[in-house]
Amino acid sequence: MLSLPSDIQLLILDHIKLPSHLKALCLTCRHLRALTTPRLYKKITIDLATYDDVPRFFRCMTAGGGAHLKDTRCLTLLDDALPPEADSLQPNRLNFDQPPGPPQDEATNRVISPEMSTKVGLILHVLPRNCLHTFRFQSIKSLDATLMGKIDEYQSQSLQYIHVTFGYSYV
């Protein structure tokens, strides 16, 4: 691949979608590392419901990954942990006594916790200003006004799409 013209190399890299494959190419040689690193950081997905995703993100940033955030165009934050009352709605478990989902007033009062809000705020703060084209937040809880203000403050000039999914994600 190294003997091919650089424009052909870039076209080939455009077809590699899995981060693990991009990472493997980064580790092969300096030339491919320079070509694949921007693609590796183009889309970042952080699962807020997973214990280690946020600390791993910050460890990566302090280990030098922060220099590559300028290439990030899409940030997806997931918080898909189902609440305990949704256990009866899992596939292969039928419950005819209870309507799907929580009562309407309970669903509308769900806002992310202050701790989660702080984590999301720090993630937004680490990103270079006006680098994102797309921001996605998928959760059973809503973002608070403070976080929406931070998104506006940090990314308003470049942001083209905001996707906020509020509600239950039935598996």
UniProtKB/TrEMBL annotation:
The entry's protein name is F-box domain-containing protein
Record's PROSITE patterns?
FBOX
Domain of life of the native organism: Eukaryota
Species for this entry: Trematosphaeria pertusa
Domain F-box, residue spans = 1-44
Q: Identify the InterPro entries for this entry.
A: F-box-like_dom_sf, F-box_dom
Ranges for the region named Disordered are 89-109
